[in-house]
Amino acid sequence: MASDTDASIDRIKAAPDLQALEAERVSALGKQGAITQLLKTLGAMTPEQRQAEGPRIHALREAVTDAIAARKAALEGAALEQRLATEKLDLTLPVPPPLEGSVHPVSQVMDELAEIFADLGFAVATGPEIEDDWRNFTALNIPETHPARAMHDTFYFPDQDAGGQRMLLRTHTSPVQIRTMQSQQPPIYIIAPGRTYRSDSDATHTPMFHQVEGLVIDRGIHLGHLKWTLETFLKAYFERDDIVLRMRPSYFPFTEPSAEVDVGYTMVKGRRVLGGNEGWMELLGSGMVHPKVIAACGLDPEEWQGFAFGCGIDRLAMLKYGMDDLRAFFDGDLRWLKHYGFSALDVPTLSGGVGA
Amino acid sequence: MKFTLSWLKEHLDTEASAAEIVQTLTAIGLEVEGVENPAEKLAPFTVARVLTAERHPQADKLQVLSVDAGTGEAIQVVCGAPNARAGLVGVFGAPGAYVPGSDITLKVAAIRGVESRGMMCSVRELELGEEHDGIIELPEDAPVGARFADYAGLDDPVIDVAITPNRQDCMGVHGIARDLAAAGLGGLRPISIKEIAGAFLCPIEIRTEDEEGCPAFYGRVVRGVRNGPSPRWLQQRLKAVGQRPISALVDMTNYIMLSYGRPLHVYDLATLKGAIVARRARDGEEVLALNGKSYRLDQTMTVIADDAQVHDIGGIMGGEHSGVTEATTDILIECAYFDPEHIARTGQKLGLTSDARQRFERGVDPAFLDTGLALATQMAVELAGGEASEIVRAGSPPSVTKTVSYRPERARALGGVEVPKAEQRAILERLGFTVEEGESWTIGVPSWRRDVDGSADIVEEVARIHGFDKILTTPLPRRPGVAAPTATPEQMLERKVRRTAAARGLNEAVTWSFIAESEAAPFGGSAWVLENPISEEMKAMRPSLLPGLLAAASRNIARGADSVRLFEVGRRYLADGERPTLGLVLAGERGPRHWRTGKAGGFDAYDAKAEALAILAAAGAPVENLQALAGASGVYHPGRSARLSLGPKNALAEFGELHPATLKAFDLSGPVVAAEIFLDALPKKRGASGHMREAYSPPALQAVKRDFAFLVPSDAAADTLLRAVRGADKQAIAAVSLFDVFTGQGVPEGEKSVAVEVTLQPGEKSFTDEELKGISERIVAAAAKAGARLRD
């Protein structure tokens, strides 16, 4: 009996395909199958015989069943392998290129500035670019006949506002100082980035450019606070500890005392890199807000004082990221935008570093 | 403002080196823009004598010289100058010397077969002038072998400083010397004047009839002058600072202006008729100025005129007619005070600038008229001889006594510098201020410091002379805790839409705010047109971001770009305000030719819609409530564009394919699609709701999906049907999506088949067959109301 079963198991193991295996299953376990027949004999046995034969017959059945299952798995595995062998892709073929969007360097730098100054407690303020003469000049202590007006190369509109003020394109972001002081009570800590305009055009000047204004109005603020603020800002922006500032007395009608601020650079492979003090370049204008300006905005200059500074954003971008032609900023050349632009995910953060 | 070191030392008694002086100038606010020593480029040239001059054997026009350059041997030089001759003392350059005027480096050369070992130089070759008709001839006694630059007194660095508009007093060497002396760089030399008594009554009447524009007009005649070229030292000084020597009397006025910041004018007395008067010009009066141009004047302008005509645009430029010449024998020297505001306005109106205007409009020292006139008289007599008349003083300059109240603690409190009181006082006195100490100091402001009128100005004086490098770096007060957010909702919105657009593969551009008027016209024109644009292309403030983006797209395509996806976040400038906007343009290919997708395709209006909706969604707009309505602006294709609106009036965006005429205007070929998102039109977020989200409650039962195909007229808007279906059972219908639009076989002419999938969400218990049947019927009925019937 056992040898019959052994023979059956051998045939199962050798079954060439699923069909042959099924035939073996039927011949062993089907209704007329050898093992089924054996199981049927159990009913006619005495309990003693059954006790002896039962486990033996069941063991035979189990051996056959296991052999069938094993063979089936083996055959299926082989069939799958055979199928997979035919399902081959040339994965060296190129996939469609991803779209490479970008953020303009000016926007990126504005975000960087907002991040740095937020940590210093400065909010971001804005104002209109089409300004009135009073806020762009007069309130900033630049009367009509002031020689400084000639330096500003102002774009004018034929229009006047309701108060008879001539309208113009703001020549600096400083009118935002006026608007802020007029509309909110000190203490004031703001930066105001935005577009500014002067009638000037060459490799380093474009008729439209970007500036950022800083303004602090509080009690007891002095030039030392200005110096610290600028040092802290520039070190954070350029992400270098060796940034050195040089303040020089200068003149702006809306600040007194006034200071030009130079930043030291080092020559590296023929390029100026900020840091160190091999040479100096002018970076921004600043000073203590003129008492007349504070008074013009309806605040008491005896009580409130503070500082203001203004700096070119395009220039900050050029110094950090190495562009050398300002005009390219406004041309919309895709090659330039992709080269100097930033990924949407390069969001400046203090924890990750504001530079990208 | 340029001056030479030796010129400065006439006013400043100092041992300081040029380098120290330059450093100090910048440190005290007189920014040095350049330092140039002409001696540096002339270093290799020496004084030399021509010993012999022989005819060149091969060339008629050349001579062979032997030259003694003090080296102890005769040097052979071939020379073509007609004035070269034995005995001439000139300037020699040896082989190796760089000749600045001809940009060559000398070397030993054979000229027509004769060896030449250097060159005798002309004025032009050494960049000392324009003359080139022969070599330089020096006096007989010039020391042979000496460095030419030393002999000629050219070893004198020229310093160029930028004078800020508040510092008129430093538009003369003397004022600069005063600042340097205050900074501890030596002593200011006092001005020495030799008073010349008037020998006769002034023969011409001098008046001022315009006390506002010209409150003071001092003058005096010098007769019997001989006006030749000015002496060498004077010419050299003027040339060194870029002024052209003209004649002794003209050079004198320039010299005094540059030395003391005091402009003067000299008239040829013979050309004046009757009295000389400062008065307002008459409308339409004309004057031919010294620059050769004629100016038309009006009654706001102050002029100097005689009985016959205008001779001078007061304080700005003299007239051609009455200027001094070589033939002049009698002169009138004018030393006047012109009002700064008047000068500025006249100068602006005439578009005329001059050294005199720059000084008068910044405000010259009103207490310096007598000194100025005395200096001028003295120098005129020294240079041109003659005798001086008595002085006439018409009018009087404005009074200048000004005091400022100042507390010395302000230096620390405003300037951030710690300066002892005694030091503050010393600084101020060295600058010419007077100090009266008290609880609060009373500071007397010198007449030449028109810019100082408050305590803050005094702080600046103290701080700049003490040194800005000594300002004490002081941290700002910092509020406790982590920095609080500072961006406004508008700023957050701009950041979000910008980075969304970039993440979707668009490139951010920044284009000009001003465009051509013709580009603004299709958008209803510009509300703001510049009066003085830089060009016609940059004249009108943009009413839309699209013109700038389209021009950029066109440039990119012209440069060979296949696909352009540009956007900009910026303002539209409308009559009633500046509106934040995101504009985008898609031009060229949507994607490149590819093996999976086949040939490259162009963009269509749906691409623009997809971008617009994605950006609106990022901006938090209720995109599911937006309706695409007709009526986008005329730059779009009328049938392939729409406004995305909340209700008929409130358009949040426009998008579509551009009109062929728009494309033509920007030299583009289609299709090009675009969109503008009006960020200012987005509904504002209502109040801060905190960070807590609604409780999470996913439906307990699975949703059921049913498909419906409807027939609608072929021009019907799909949106109408979708809304109708969505509204058929608000309780049960969770979503409706359109998955097929079909015309053709099986669909009647004039109709289209629209297939939608409706998602039904059961609540507490599953839908029964009855309920499902009921919902289906309601959907079909609602669709029927919207003009659709179920397709069989």
Could you give the topology of this structure?
The complex is a heterodimer of chains A (356) and B (792).
Chain A: H1 2-14, H2 18-29, H3 34-41, H4 47-86, H5 105-119, E1 123-124, E2 130-132, H6 133-136, H7 147-151, E3 156-160, E4 166-169, H8 175-183, E5 188-197, E6 208-218, H9 223-238, E7 245-252, E8 255-268, E9 271-274, E10 279-289, H10 291-296, E11 305-312, H11 313-321, H12 334-340
Parallel strand pairs in A: 1-5
Antiparallel strand pairs in A: 2-4, 3-4, 5-6, 6-11, 7-8, 8-9, 8-10, 10-11
Helix pairs in contact in A: 1-2, 1-4, 2-4, 3-4, 5-11
Chain B: E1 2-4, H1 5-9, E2 12-13, H2 18-27, E3 31-36, H3 38-42, E4 45-55, E5 63-68, E6 74-79, E7 89-93, E8 98-99, E9 104-105, E10 109-111, E11 114-116, E12 119-120, H4 148-151, E13 158-162, H5 173-182, E14 187-188, E15 206-208, E16 216-223, H6 232-240, H7 248-260, E17 265-268, E18 276-280, E19 286-288, E20 294-296, E21 302-305, E22 310-313, E23 317-318, E24 330-337, H8 340-350, H9 355-362, H10 369-384, E25 387-388, E26 392-395, E27 402-406, H11 410-413, H12 421-430, E28 434-436, E29 441-445, H13 455-466, H14 489-503, E30 507-508, E31 514-515, H15 517-520, E32 540-541, H16 546-558, E33 563-574, E34 577-588, H17 605-618, E35 627-629, E36 636-646, E37 650-658, H18 660-665, E38 673-678, E39 704-713, H19 718-726, E40 733-742, E41 751-760, H20 769-785, E42 789-790
Parallel strand pairs in B: 15-18, 30-33
Antiparallel strand pairs in B: 1-13, 2-14, 3-13, 4-5, 4-7, 5-6, 7-12, 8-9, 10-11, 16-24, 16-25, 16-26, 17-24, 18-21, 19-20, 21-22, 22-23, 27-29, 28-29, 31-32, 33-34, 34-38, 35-36, 36-37, 37-38, 39-41, 39-42, 40-41
Helix pairs in contact in B: 5-12, 7-10, 8-9, 14-17, 19-20
